[in-house]
Design a protein that fits this description.
Elements: E1 6-9, E2 19-22, E3 31-40, H1 43-46, E4 49-56, E5 67-73, E6 76-82, E7 87-94, E8 102-109, E9 112-117, E10 123-126, E11 140-142, E12 161-162, E13 164-173, E14 181-182, E15 192-194, E16 196-198, E17 214-218, E18 221-225, E19 230-231, E20 237-238, E21 257-261, E22 264-268, E23 273-274, E24 280-281, E25 287-289, E26 296-299, E27 307-316, E28 321-327, E29 337-343, E30 346-352, E31 357-365, E32 374-381, E33 384-389, E34 392-395, E35 411-413, E36 436-443, E37 446-448, E38 457-459, E39 462-463, E40 479-482, E41 488-491, E42 496-497, E43 503-504, E44 517-520, E45 526-529, E46 534-535, E47 541-542, E48 547-551, E49 555-559, E50 570-579, E51 584-589, E52 599-605, E53 608-614, E54 623-629, E55 635-643, E56 646-651, E57 654-660, E58 675-678, H2 687-690, E59 700-708, H3 717-720, E60 721-724, E61 727-728
Parallel strand pairs: 4-12
Antiparallel strand pairs: 1-13, 1-16, 2-11, 2-15, 3-8, 3-13, 4-5, 4-11, 5-6, 6-7, 8-9, 9-10, 13-14, 17-18, 19-20, 21-22, 23-24, 25-36, 25-39, 26-35, 26-38, 27-32, 27-36, 28-29, 28-35, 29-30, 30-31, 32-33, 33-34, 36-37, 40-41, 42-43, 44-45, 46-47, 48-59, 48-61, 49-58, 49-60, 50-55, 50-59, ...
């Protein structure tokens, strides 16, 4: 729009005023005089409390904020200014509305100000106090102000609305004998502005509102005000039953999602809510899914790249539905995917590693009458898949070059957030949500918490029996009895007590010290599992030793204090070991949190030394030395050097391995995170699960003389390590 006569729309529906800003006038201090002309757009609202022109300091709420302002209030023109010692106010007579174009001249010389409007007599006023100079260095605003609220203007200069109409022919001078000139640099050009149109021109002539809509001119922009039942930029879209504009509005509770149907709508309830309009709170202990409601839950992505093992109990009420799903992408081009589902009453496992879809199906169908909790264990190691339903196993005999599952989506349970985004190859028929109950879901040994707080997302999930009792609410065989909608009690077996049957009767009032763990021995006795550095019956005796004995459920976790300065392309570890059993993990260098993390591991398998290393992608297979037995209950010295991809192993100072695990050197550094485990992992972690089956259990025997990276001093476990159930080792 070419603007020669600015048209202002006042304050828009969002509370912003239209305005034009000009560069500051530096010489306003002792004298100024302005001339301008204006027309009014709407007599009733344009003369109530409207800003015409303002220059001044941004308001701080103080009386000393210098400013000059011109505005309309109650049908009169008002000229005000403040030189720092008080406000001068000059008010005209009421405007003659028969005059279409109004002319205003106003100014100030030191403390004296004046105002002349149309043919009215000239009016004057005086600023209180001794100050005679105006300190204003900001822009001159016409028609409005760029701040959201008038409260940001100085006291005395505040008008509640912007101007409504046209302001033009603005001129000013800063000397009594000076010539009038236009605002701006160059003259007549504003610096910036908002929502300003051209006087006498409305963009509505170019806009055709449909279906009875009315074009509303808002300065430089327009919009269509639609009749009831219509919406959109041009009122061409019908209002959906789920739109807030609909009459009556949808009743779905806050946080739920309204979904339009051919005859009304339905509410998709977020986790923890239920009911027709999601108005009821629900506690989920064993989730209930419904295909009719497109139910689903989701959990964060997990590391299932090399190995995926899903263990699940379910009770179906419908022959079809997704149990577990994860993919590389959500969409028709999903890439790699893993899907466990029901198809015509059979359990089906489908997965794609990039070389085609693998399909395994159970030999038997499931009970669909809600009488049986079925147990399924399904998954794949590399490309080899397996499926077991109620201990009847099916395995796949198929070779494929691809061995890794690259998925990045959440892990979906019972359905998927958008069923149309499921890979077409993931299900035999159209994908649908599961109908029935689920409980005890484990993925790679890690149990997922199937509750409204354990999942990160979900829709339309109920509780299987509608009570606070769930499959594992009461521990150790305790029986759950509901005592109300959200309460329960556990009936504990004789050896257990506590509100959840998670306290051994033997351990009540135990004397285990220093953070040790009480474990029952018999009905009336207990033992204490001591933290590293403590021993004795009640873990009240300090242990000082350089040799440490492990008993199969022991571990030491050592954090390398010099990790940040290590050269991770060259790793060295040496130690002495005394084995008491033929299998077990001796050392694991690595965080051991996700299966894809780097590691260097040493252990025993059937009495033979076993070495495993992963610098990335598990390119090298574990090595077992079949002809080297660490037997006879005696000490052996083991040393490993990893130079980029070349691994060198010494046993009792004799080299037994020198091998390049990856001549292409795709990965050359051991990013072990500064963590080294000895003997096993934390008590609640299964060695076979953490190591993906490389080692079956924890170490039984003794370890001493541990050195890392060729350091001159051996590792001081008692000072810088942590662990449990470690005893003073064998010295001889």
């Amino acid at each position: 729009i070419n603007i020669t006569r600015a048209r202002f729309s006042g304050t828009d529906e969002f509370g912003y005023t239209s305005f034009v800003a000009y560069t500051s006038i530096p010489s306003l201090s002792f004298f100024y005089e302005f001339k301008l002309r204006f027309t009014l757009a709407n007599i009733s609202s344009a003369v109530r409390d409207n800003l015409i022109l303002f220059a001044g300091q941004k308001g701080q709420g103080n009386d000393g904020d210098d400013f000059l302002v011109l505005g309309l209030r109650s049908g009169r023109v008002v000229h005000r200014f403040n030189l720092g010692s008080g406000i001068a106010t000059i008010v005209s007579d009421r405007l003659n509305y028969n005059i279409s174009i109004h002319t205003v001249t106003f100014g100030r010389s030191k403390r004296t100000g004046w105002l002349k409007v149309d043919g009215q007599r000239n009016r004057t006023g005086y600023s209180p106090g001794p100050l005679v100079g105006l300190n204003v260095f900001n822009q001159v605003f016409v028609g409005g102000y760029n701040e959201f609220t008038p409260e940001l203007l100085p006291l005395g200069s505040r008008f509640r609305q912007g101007f409504q109409g046209c302001i033009f022919s603005i001129q000013f001078r800063t000397r009594k004998d000076g010539k009038f000139q236009a605002l701006g640099q160059p003259a007549g050009y504003p610096a910036f502005g908002r929502s300003v149109g051209q006087c006498g021109v409305t963009p509505c002539v170019h806009v055709r509102c449909m279906n009875g809509g009315t074009c509303v001119d808002s300065g430089s922009s327009v919009y269509c005000q639609c009749l009831s039942g219509w919406k959109g930029a041009l009122c061409t879209e019908t209002v959906s039953v789920c739109d807030p504009e609909h009459s009556p509005p949808p009743l779905c509770s806050h946080g739920s999602t309204c979904i339009p149907l051919p005859n009304g709508y339905t509410c998709q309830c977020p986790l923890g809510t239920a009911g027709l309009h999601c108005e009821k709170a629900v506690t989920i202990t064993d989730p209930f899914f419904s295909s009719n409601k497109s139910s689903w839950m989701s959990f964060p992505p997990m590391s299932i790249r090399h190995r995926t093992v899903v263990e699940l109990q379910f009770q179906p009420l419908s022959p079809d539905g997704i149990l577990v799903y994860s993919a590389q992408h959500l969409g028709a081009r999903a890439g790699d995917f893993f899907c466990l589902s029901l198809t015509s009453g059979f359990v089906q496992l489908r997965y794609n590693l990039g070389g085609g879809t693998h399909v395994l199906r159970s030999t038997q169908t499931v009970d669909l009458h809600g009488r049986t909790w079925h147990v399924v264990k399904a998954g794949r190691t590399g490309h080899q898949g397996f499926l077991s339903l109620d201990n009847e196993e099916v395995r796949e005999n198929r070779t494929e070059r691809m061995t890794t599952l690259d998925v990045a989506t959440d892990i979906f349970v019972g359905g998927v957030s958008t069923l149309s985004f499921v890979s077409p190859e993931a299900t035999e028929r159209e994908p649908m949500s599961f109908t029935g109950g689920l409980r005890e879901l484990k993925i790679n040994g890690r149990e997922l918490e199937l509750t409204e707080t354990g999942a990160i997302g979900g829709t339309n999930i109920g509780d299987w029996d509608g009570t606070a009792c769930g499959y594992k609410v009461c521990h150790n065989g305790g029986q759950c009895r509901a005592t109300g909608a959200d309460s329960f009690i556990c009936i504990c077996p004789s050896l257990w007590t506590g509100s959840l049957c998670n306290q051994s009767v033997s351990c009540v009032n135990n004397n285990c010290r220093h953070g040790s763990i009480c474990t029952p021995s018999t009905v009336t006795s207990y033992s204490c599992i001591c933290p590293l550095g403590w021993g004795g019956t009640h873990c009240d005796t300090k242990v000082s030793t350089d040799s440490f004995r492990f008993v199969g459920n022991s571990h030491i976790k050592y954090r390398d204090q010099r990790f940040n300065t290590r050269n991770l392309k060259y790793t060295q570890i040496s130690f002495s070991v005394y084995a008491s059993s033929s299998d077990g993990l001796i050392v694991w260098m690595g965080n051991a949190e996700h299966e894809d993390e780097d590691y260097l591991a040493v252990g025993l398998e059937e009495g033979n030394l076993k070495i495993a290393v992963n610098l990335g992608e598990r390119l090298a297979l574990p090595i077992t030395f079949k002809n080297l037995t660490l037997c006879c209950r005696k000490w052996h010295d083991v040393s490993l050097n990893l130079n980029r991809t070349v691994i060198q192993v010494f046993l009792n100072n004799k080299e037994i391995l020198f091998e390049d695990s990856d001549p292409f050197e795709r990965y050359v550094a051991l990013n072990f995170g500064g963590v080294v485990y000895f003997g096993g992992f934390e008590i609640y972690r299964n060695v076979s699960v953490v190591t993906s089956g490389i080692f079956s259990k924890g170490f039984e025997g003794s370890i001493r003389n541990v050195f890392l990276f060729g350091d001159g001093n051996q590792v001081l476990f008692l000072k810088k390590g942590e662990g449990f159930n470690v005893f003073e080792g064998i010295e001889s």
